[in-house]
């Protein structure tokens, strides 16, 4: 049996009006078309739905039963088939080191479950634009100390040292945190999370070069202007033929935070926060 929604709408409208002409006018179709539609519906269900022996059509007992069912079911069916209205997209800022698997899994979950578009946006500034309203939320490495922002720790992971393949450190299997203090450091001055002050007072590196983003950072490391330090997952996502990533012992863990404004956050900001924490394929490791 192949019954369409339009046939059901036509029947329910005729049942309410009990007049072919008025029902056809409500539906915006010719009266003969309505008559044919009702007859096809009766053929499909295998019984008479209307008593046509009177001046105005009246419902048969089978017609009354169908009307009672459709008055409940048809509005629910139409609502289920109606396109879900799209909400304003949620823009998710990041500066560098977007956690691809965790981030993409969380975005996919929120988009499927809540029908909202999540748009990752790279912005080379410390807070990725979330503090100015340029984005709705952000994923940030390192501490976030802004009272206007709600901050949630998403994960911690170990760091690695980034050294030039021509560096004397390239022959080592690993390097220690204090060892880097004897080297020059490449410093990300825009969105970096480390500075010489993060090393012990008696083992603080000098600044060998400055960079404004991750690309410049790796170029400086490759040119032997200094060593770098990155979260392990970030290093994995950015292979470079001229840069070697070495395990780094004794280093403080890298901490990934999710932040959004405390005042008037995006309606789905908390949904994304939960999805990030509950991502099924976490790439980040405990330090």
UniProtKB/TrEMBL annotation:
<dbReference type="InterPro" id="IPR000847">
    <property type="entry name" value="LysR_HTH_N"/>
</dbReference>
<dbReference type="GO" id="GO:0003700">
    <property type="term" value="F:DNA-binding transcription factor activity"/>
</dbReference>
<protein>
    <recommendedName>
        <fullName>HTH lysR-type domain-containing protein</fullName>
    </recommendedName>
</protein>
<feature type="domain" description="HTH lysR-type">
    <location>
        <begin position="1"/>
        <end position="60"/>
    </location>
</feature>
<dbReference type="Pfam" id="PF03466">
    <property type="entry name" value="LysR_substrate"/>
</dbReference>
<dbReference type="InterPro" id="IPR036390">
    <property type="entry name" value="WH_DNA-bd_sf"/>
</dbReference>
<dbReference type="GO" id="GO:0003677">
    <property type="term" value="F:DNA binding"/>
</dbReference>
<dbReference type="InterPro" id="IPR005119">
    <property type="entry name" value="LysR_subst-bd"/>
</dbReference>
<dbReference type="Pfam" id="PF00126">
    <property type="entry name" value="HTH_1"/>
</dbReference>
<dbReference type="InterPro" id="IPR036388">
    <property type="entry name" value="WH-like_DNA-bd_sf"/>
</dbReference>
<keyword id="KW-0238">DNA-binding</keyword>
<comment type="similarity">
    <text>Belongs to the LysR transcriptional regulatory family.</text>
</comment>
<keyword id="KW-0805">Transcription regulation</keyword>
<keyword id="KW-0804">Transcription</keyword>
<dbReference type="GO" id="GO:0032993">
    <property type="term" value="C:protein-DNA complex"/>
</dbReference>
